[in-house]
Amino acid sequence: MATNNLNIQEFLDQDQKKDLLRLLTAGSVDDGKSTLIGRLMFDSKMLYEDQLAALERDSKRVGHAGEDIDYALLLDGLKAEREQGITIDVAYRYFSTAKRKFIIADTPGHEQYTRNMITGGSTANLAIILIDARYGVITQTKRHTFLASLLGIKHVVVAVNKMDLVDFSQNIYEDIKRDYKAFVTQLDIPDVRFIPISALKGDNVVESSERMPWYHGVSMLEFLETVHISSDRNFTDLRYPVQYVLRPDIGFRGFSAAVASGIISKGDEVMVMPSLKKSKVKSIVTYDKELDYAFPPQSVTVTLEDEIDISRGDMLVHLDNLPRMERQFEAMLVWMDETKMNLSTQFYIKHASNSTKARIDEVKYKVDVNSLEKQKVENFSLNEIGRVVLTTTKPLFFDPYKKNKQTGSFVLIDPVTHNTCAVGMIIDRLSSKNLPSRISDVDKGKIALGKSLIRKKERQHKYNQKGETIWITGLHGSGKNELAFSLENKLFKSGAATVLIDGSSVRSGLNRELDFTPADRAENLRRVAHICKLLNDQGIITICSFISRNNSLRQQIAEIIGKDRFHLFYMNASLEYCKNNKPELYILAENGEVENLPGIDLEYQEPKNAQLIFNPKDNENNLDQILDYLSKNKIFPNK
Amino acid sequence: MKEYSLTNLRELEAEAIHIIREVAAEFENPVMLYSIGKDSSVMVRLAEKAFYPGKVPFPLMHIDSKWKFNEMIDFREKYAKEKGWDLIVHYNKEGFEGGVGPFTHGSKVHTDVMKTQALLAGLDKYKFDAAFGGARRDEEKSRAKERIFSFRDKFHQWDPKNQRPELWNIYNARVQKGESIRVFPISNWTELDIWQYIRLENIPIVPLYFAKERPVVNMDGSLILVDDERMPKELRDKAEMRMVRFRTLGCYPLTGAVESDADTIEKIVEEMMTVTVSERTTRVIDFDQEASMEQKKREGYF
Q1: Which of A167, A420, B28, B89 has its CB surrounded by the most CB atoms within 10 Å?
Q2: What is the pLDDT of residues B18-46, one digit of tens each?
Q3: Taking CB atoms and an 8 Å cutoff, what residues of chain B touch A5?
Q4: pTM (two decimals)
Q5: CA atoms of A425 and A400, how far apart (whole Å)
Q6: What ipTM is given for this predicted complex?
């Protein structure tokens, strides 16, 4: 045996270096999920022994058990489950291969246990979604995929199982793949793969199958071993939620936390939320040694140069990268309690290391997890999911869940039963409906407005103009941009001081992270409105050319800029005209490759209160009309 | 280029430290249950790490069934003194004075009185609102479903069908008076992880884990160590010296040894990797009744 010692040491040294993949499996009762897991665990154990044996002596394959082993039995757990013959809760399984260690959260497929899938999936890097090749994409498949996307799982592998029962047919596989792809594009999952398998017979589970030569991809296990997950963590935005304050003696004051995101380094200048006090990182202490830097998910203790009062729930961040600090936000909420949501309850909310109380202000809608349709409801019952507005007693420091799982997630605890009754994922930003009021108003009172020494009259006199906004609305391709540029040119040459803003100028930089969903479109416009406000305050005329698709949005923009200096003009072009004028986007939208294009799948409302309405075919006249309007209203020239 | 990735072990370690700190921050009166086994040794090290350079801010409690291996007690005394632990040793006084033991009362009664009842009485006596345990989900099937923060009602009972949802690393620590939470910081560790960590960190463990020539008696297929005089003489007379080690540690009459020559951690791992019998099968108590561990957990045993 002594001769093996070195080998086993080599093995242990290698084993120590393995990383960890947490995965979620979801499927319905009969589509072979337990069989797949059982086989992954069992067969990889065999490989494990092989691996060890190979290190000990010559490689010697350990004989496999016959094909008739019921792999599902290996996983059998609680009594109740045995009686029902199905998995009733989340069960965690562990296995390891030569390359990686794995934790599987094995979750049930049937409806009443959505909360368990949510529980099992919250820490998963990857989800395996099983589809029975005989039945294809079914309601349950969609539900599981939706939940995976809701949880922000970045990698989904669709295991098309029971290929042996459909004669390993490539056509069936391709059909399922196409159906699934059509569905999954509505959701936000960056990495989706497909693998045709037979869990029962072992095809493409551990070893590539010879019975599906048309499939050129890797086996399930090979995929799990190689999928790249380390970049899924957020190493950008430092969020250090202080969990515990360590004061062993007078000389030491340490702030312990698990780094939620970003990198904290010795010497970093940091700010403490919510006090906004600043200091520098003096040291990063661990039992083993002091570190120069720490990253998620490390648990460390930080000391600071200055004596600042910091307690549990506070957060250290970098000065140039702050989370939102607010009492009100919107979230996707999953109701986990048998008792219905009650809007008058004051819940405990736990968010990162922070605890406070929270109330649900409003239920926006419920998502039907089967159809993904939004429904208007008053409250949620067990397993229902939807969008809500929450207000907390003290401010939380958070980021959108999409950007940061650690600081974008929270749980609600019932004040009486102390059950975890709901879990939530904070949404990037407020919906268009609440656009101006909430974002601009919450902290308005706290900001002391700087007082300029230059009076408005002085500016008007100097520039010979009033700092106001000319806003041109109209469909994509209506010709509003052309008009805006002609106007800019004309005004410039006449000596006016103007700034032109259009979609491409803001979306290429300032608003680059925004998409074209209704909410993102609204946010885009909100920011533009604030730019206009700033420029107008300085006496500059702004010329804006944006689709700005409905009255509510345009009204909110007017409110931000100031109603008396917001001038709305409408480029009244028919959809037909626009399609002819700029066909590219419209073709894509009609093919379903582009979504949320006003006039196609988003409504465009004609403005009711436009000051001027233009005919796109008559640009000369349009320009004259505007100049006339500006002159009449003493916008330019002012004298 | 800086490295921003952790190995499996360091990731598990970070997770456990986070859990341990969370308990210290959220509960008024937590305790770490200390069984003297290898998992307990790992837990203690993790607790030391969590509060370094400070001291661990909660006591350890050993539920002494009075039938533990003598080497376990020696080990406990040595390290408690050396490391300056705040250690509570609790046992069922009535049971002990009434002479309850596995040889006379059978494993079921003994375990119930000297382990489960003693544990519950110990928790009640000190009014602990949270108790750390070293259970791992890979150990046993019913544990695979248990949360990291596992809620217990005022009778210390676990309801597997009505567990609190547990997401991300946000743990619900709210309890009413009398209720408590069992906390399992090493839930996600496997047996191999434990051994690897002990090796990596040089953590001291009870020598019984390593193979040595020891006097054992074959009792219904289990190799039971002759640890003291309380083993009936007719059994003791059958003892023979064999090269054995223990894969788990508990009450000596209820814990079977395995024949082995693994006298280093490396050899233990090697043996473990090639032996397919799961770890707990050498503990006699699990065989008492169908799904017995689940039953015991419902009653409050870990």
Answers
A1: A420
A2: 999 999 999 999 999 999 999 999 999 99
A3: 264, 266-267
A4: 0.74
A5: 8
A6: 0.90
